[in-house]
Amino acid sequence: MNNDMKKFFKSLKFKMALLYSGILLVLCLGFFLVMNIFLVDYMQKDIGSPRLVGFNNAGFFANLNDEKIELLKESRQNDLANIRLISIYSILPFVVLSFGGGYLIADNSLKPLEKLKEEMKKKSTKNLGEKIEFEDKGDEISEVIQSFNDMSEQLGRSFEAQKEFVENASHELKTPLAVIQANVDSILADSKIPQEDLFNMLDDSKKSIIFMNKLTEDLLLLSLVDVDFEKKKLNLRDLLDD
């Protein structure tokens, strides 16, 4: 069995069609069972007792003899057997037709999900904010697509905000790094720098390092914004006493 067949048997369309076909099959079998019960009851009705049918030559009702009763009984049994045979033979095409109809219904119902799957494959960081166009039918599938659109829009805004923040942070880091690099290059290039100038360069470098440390701490704090912290009650008086 190749991968396509495996995917088909595992697909939601196949499972829905199989369920639809199974329900119809059970209903069909139930109908045939009830019909056969009534037919058996009807076919066997009054077979064992003589019946008055028509007039004889003398103008009186004629009784069926045992031979005619047996023929009538045999005829009814043959009719019942034929009906049962027709019922059995009609089950197979009914199952096939019900499965095909169920598959078509499932395919039509799941088309929005197929479209959602294809659109999800096309999603990237460049088009996260784009919504999937669909016809809102008010069903569960429409709700799923709408939820995906809302999530995609939120992710798009978050990604753009993150991108803008990284660009700003990179720009903020360039200035102190440039100061440190310039001071280091100056010190390495001239070994006879006056003590005061050397002190100023080192002081500027220290300030730049402090600024970068503060910036990295802010970045770390922002990265923890979405983390679930454990919440518990604290006694403010105890904190103040400490």
Automatic annotation (TrEMBL):
In terms of Gene3D superfamilies, this protein maps to: 1.10.287.130, 6.10.340.10
Task: Please indicate which superkingdom the organism of origin belongs to.
Answer: Bacteria
- Give any Gene Ontology cellular component: plasma membrane
Please state the Enzyme Commission number of this protein: 2.7.13.3
Q: What class of enzyme is it?
A: transferase
Swiss-Prot/TrEMBL catalytic activity? ATP + protein L-histidine = ADP + protein N-phospho-L-histidine
Presence of the UniProt keyword Transferase in the record:
yes
Q: What SMART domains is this protein classified in?
A: HAMP, HisKA
Keyword annotations for this protein? Kinase, Membrane, Phosphoprotein, Transferase, Transmembrane, Transmembrane helix, Two-component regulatory system
Q: Which residues cross the membrane?
A: 16-39, 86-106
GO MF terms here are: phosphorelay sensor kinase activity
HAMP domain mapped to chain residues: 107-160
Q: Which PANTHER family match?
A: SENSOR HISTIDINE KINASE TRCS (PTHR45436:SF5), SENSOR HISTIDINE KINASE YKOH (PTHR45436)
Q: What is this protein called?
A: histidine kinase
Its lineage reads:
Bacteria, Candidatus Dojkabacteria
